[in-house]
Structures are given as C-alpha cells and as structure tokens.
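Shapes recur. One chain:

:::
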Amino acid sequence: MRDLYDDQRLGEARGSLMASLGLAARAVGPRAFVERLPIKVSTSDGGEDSSWLLSVLRGHVARATLDFFAAYFVPLQAWLLERAAALGADGRTVEQKNLHNLHEQVWALLPGFCASADDVASSFPALAKTLGTVLNERPELRPPVLQGLSAMVQHQRSLREVVPAGGGGGVKVRPTAAAAAALEAVGKYAKNFLPLLFNLHQAEPAEKREPICEAIGAYAHAAPPALLSDFFRDVLRKLLETAAAGSAADSLEQQGSLLDLLLALAPALSPTEHAPLLWRAVRPLLSHNSPLLQKKAYKALGTLAEHHPSFLTERLGGGTGPLYA
C-alpha cells in the first residue's frame, strides 16, 4: 500500500489509501506500524522519502507506549531540527521550512501517545525533562505538549475499578493499581511542571491561556496534596496582594489571570481546607465594579458548586441562604 502513494494514477483515491493505512496503524499500534513502514526523510533529489506517514499516524495513535515515543520520535525530531538548521545555513530555506513542518508533525503525535500509553509509571520519568524543555523553549510546540499532559492524566484518572468497601457489603470506586502508579509517577514532577505552567500562563496573552489552564487543572489531580496546597496558597496570596495594591487596569488584569489559576486548581483542592479560602477570596468580587472580575467570581462560584457541592450548600444554607452572606 505504501508503494501506491507515489503512483500518480492514484489521484483522489490517495485519501482513501491514507485513511486505510491510518486504520491499520490504529489497529496494530505505532511501534508495529513503523517497524513495517519506517519513516524516512530525504533532503536530496531521488532519495527515498516516506515522511507522509506522519500524516497517516496523526489521529490514529492507539496501543502506544511512551517509551517508544522517546526511543523513536524524540531522536527523529532532534535530527529534523538539526538538519533544518544546516539547510538554513546553506540557504536552502524551502527544504528548511519543510523539515520544520515535519518537526511539528512529530510532536503532534504526542497527545495520542499520552492518551493511550500503558507505561506511564515506568516511562514518563525519562521523558519529563524533554517535555519541560520543549514547553520552556519552543512556543510553537506548546499546544501538543500541553494537550499531551492533559490527556495523560485524564486517561489515567479514567481507569477505575470497583472494590468492596469494608465489611458492610458496600462498594467503592478507586483508580486501578496501574493508574495509581502512573499518577504517582507524574505527580513526582509536579514541583517542576506546575511552576513552569504557572509562569507560562502569566506570560501568555489571555487568548492563549486556556490550554495552559487545562494542563494545570489536569496536573493538579496528580500532584501530592501538600505540594498542591502550597501552590494554591501562594497564588491566593498573590491575588490578595494584587487586589490590595489598587484598581488600575493592569492590576485588574493580573487579578483576573491569578483567578484563572485558582479556578484551574479548584477541582483538585480539598473541600474542607481550600474551598473556604477560595470562597472568601472571590465572594467580594461577586459585586465588584469590574465586569472581568465579577464574571470570573461567578465562574468560581460555579466551579465550587460543581466540584465541592457540599461546601457550597452548607455555606449558602442549603440553597436558601443569601448569596453574599
């Protein structure tokens, strides 16, 4: 099937060919797929090139492992970047741009690997530094890395099992042993990733912050509780200090940005220790004269209602108490 791709007679049927190969890739997994159909990149006339297989794989990654991404695709992306720089130095800017596009296509595969990997506990530690470096140094690659981190934690949190709850005949739902180990492995790097994500969030314009918030929210569920508590209190302190500094436009913007961070963390927070602190911070903003802060305060109220309903019900008197009490 791969040999058919270069046949000019294929015409519009090329799309069907790629779709069929994509289904095959999903069925056997990326490791078995590239073992049979290696990805080759040529920058010389007449060289064998099968880099179009990257487009086949995108959206068709399943049965994947992080160790294979680290062993096969991380070296590939490094070579693409190095070769692109060499081509640029030689004035071959068209080929340089093509390799940059392929480089981004490699990283676009990461979310699929993260969403289906079954070796997170053993393989994430070896990949963590690379992901952190990419987030810090390659702005154009942040979207797939952020999406990958979010997908990885969300997938592991979805792997649950029903077990007996004591001797009363009841049951409870908990993460599987493999998922718990994976989340623990990811959580060990929260001290590195959460500050990095916080800094990226504060540095980016508002229109680029949503995927960062999603990654923060996902990672918060894997973070050790004590560490998460420290981060929450630090952001809350900065919010209160900024609010006390004045109501200038830049201060209001910073308050809104800090509120976004608190909202991202909120679902993973303790309903008894942290929810009351968040409530006390946002309650005065429900009647703030800034539409931006008022909107975010009501969003915080909705987040508390969704993720910590018992706290909010108690605080509002079973739904009959005054909202601003």
Residues 87 and 96 are 5 Å apart (CA to CA). The longest strand covers residues 160-165.
